[in-house]
Write a structure and sequence with these properties.
alpha/beta; binds zinc ion; about 30% helix; 8-stranded parallel beta sheet; 15 helices; about 450 residues; binds (4S)-2,6-dioxohexahydropyrimidine-4-carboxylic acid; single chain
């Protein structure tokens, strides 16, 4: 097969993993980076992408995405979910196992991996279930699941409720050097709850979820991680109490990492009054005090990475009473704009730290050789226009679902081109791609 050479010219390259921030060129040969240098002759390339005045970063990585395929393809499928990822600047995502059927056997992981080769527009790394059917009783075949392609384990959507099961799971995951991503929610405390406990829940007459439903599971899992040496990754952390525990555990050298979503960083439960079911998810939106604590923890590196928890649901699953509405919101196509506008823009994070939290840091949690721009690495690259002003319009999403609380938000900063393994999988009209060797590029 002919290898196409692509030059990304004159972009501001920011690669936090390599402490790089400078205007330079990147030459890509086939699917890998061949050269990064301020002087590269455009004649060396078959295709030239003009990235002047644009930011060029390693392709974004989201380690918490629900693709809904197989079984719930009215919400999303492999093609639409990965196109939504590309549109949001993501070149790699990890997909959660709460599909129908559940991703809990090596055969199912193998089938998914085969399908992804044909249907996915970006790299997808499967996360397999911790327990059979996500039922919390029998730990799955971790060894077989890893051999089939799983990069982590999670019962996300549900929690591994019993300590003895989580203890066994952490021991077995440790032997394979893979993390367990825990959806931290103690069902005995959260059962029957709709949104966060507090005034808003009272006003709406629904049962509220206390913040301790999250932190008691985080505390338990930290104890189990310390005992087993296993790696627990706290999914979508939302509370001040939770980050206090993670901070302490990290100081003690326990193998714990954590992720946070843009919505938990930007919204409180007050927003449920405005957006209704589109502001309903698990864990729920919390208080201003929690928001400030998780922002600080992210800035301090206590929270390692930003994820979307992209959780598509059909309109009929959301356009119902708050108590009956499905949990979760889509996030792939708004995450970067929200992070740039509200976290970088409001100086919660530097640009470098924001990109780090969406590139090499999530890659290192999953043990992926990705998330950086260096010679010989996969050419997974995102080009961003930091000045582009845009309004969130759910009708423009590639996702099949529209359940976002951010509809109508005005943001500054948007991906304009997404390249996966040297191939442009999405770009908008503002970026110039010039074919200079039409013999080679068909
Ligand atoms: O709100 C949520 N929705 N939280 C989860 O953990 C699961 C997700 C889903 O699958 O819809
Ligand atoms: Zn979850």
């Amino acid at each position: 097969m002919v290898k196409i050479k692509t030059l990304i010219k004159d972009g501001m390259v920011v690669d936090p993993a390599n402490n790089l921030r400078k205007t330079t060129n990147i030459l890509i040969n086939g699917n890998t980076v061949e050269k990064i240098h301020p002087k590269i002759n455009p004649r060396e390339a078959d295709v030239v992408i003009n990235a002047e005045d644009k930011l060029v970063v390693p392709g974004l990585i989201d380690l918490h995405v629900h693709l809904r395929d197989p079984g719930q393809t009215h919400k999303e499928d492999l093609a639409t979910g990965t196109m939504a990822a590309a549109h949001g600047g993501f070149t790699s995502v990890a997909c959660m196992p709460n599909t129908t059927p559940v991703l809990d056997t090596p055969e199912r992981v193998k089938t998914l991996v085969q399908r992804l080769k044909k249907e996915a527009h970006v790299n997808v790394f499967p996360v397999a279930a911790v327990t059979k059917g996500l039922e919390g009783e029998v730990v799955t075949d971790f060894e077989g699941l890893k051999a089939a392609g799983a990069v982590a384990f999670s019962d996300d959507g549900k929690v591994v409720q019993r300590a003895s099961i989580m203890h066994e799971a952490l021991k077995r995951a440790e032997a394979l050097s893979l993390p367990i991503c825990q959806h931290a929610e103690d069902a005995s405390l959260s059962c029957g709850t709709v949104i966060n406990e507090g005034e808003v829940a009272e006003k709406l007459g629904v049962k509220g979820d206390p913040d301790i439903s999250e932190s008691v599971i985080i505390a338990r899992d930290i104890v189990l991680a310390a005992r087993t040496g296993g790696h627990v990754h706290v999914g979508h952390i939302s509370t001040e109490r939770g980050v206090t525990l993670v901070r302490r555990a990290k100081q003690m050298g326990i193998k714990v990492t954590a992720e946070v979503t843009p919505h938990h960083l930007l919204l409180t439960d007050e927003y449920v009054l405005k957006a209704g079911p589109n502001a309903k998810m698990r864990p729920p939106l919390r208080t201003q005090q929690d928001v400030e604590a998780i922002r600080q923890a992210l800035a301090d590196g206590i929270i390692d990475c930003i994820v979307t928890d992209h959780a598509p649901h059909a309109a009929e699953e959301k356009n119902v009473d708050l108590a009956d509405a499905a949990n979760g919101i889509v996030g792939l196509e708004t995450a970067l704009g929200l992070v740039l506008t509200h976290l970088v823009g409001e100086k919660v994070l530097s640009l470098e730290d924001a990109i780090a939290a969406m590139t090499y840091k999530p890659a290192s949690i999953l043990g992926l050789d990705k998330g950086m721009l260096a010679v010989g690495k996969d050419a997974d690259i995102t080009i961003i226009d930091l000045n582009k002003k845009w309004t969130v319009d759910p009708e423009a999403f590639f996702s099949k679902s529209r359940n976002t609380p951010f509809s109508g938000w005005q943001l500054t900063g948007k991906p304009v081109l997404t390249m996966v393994g040297g191939k442009v999988v999405w770009s908008d009209e503002s970026i110039n791609i010039e074919v200079v060797n039409s013999d080679k590029v068909s």
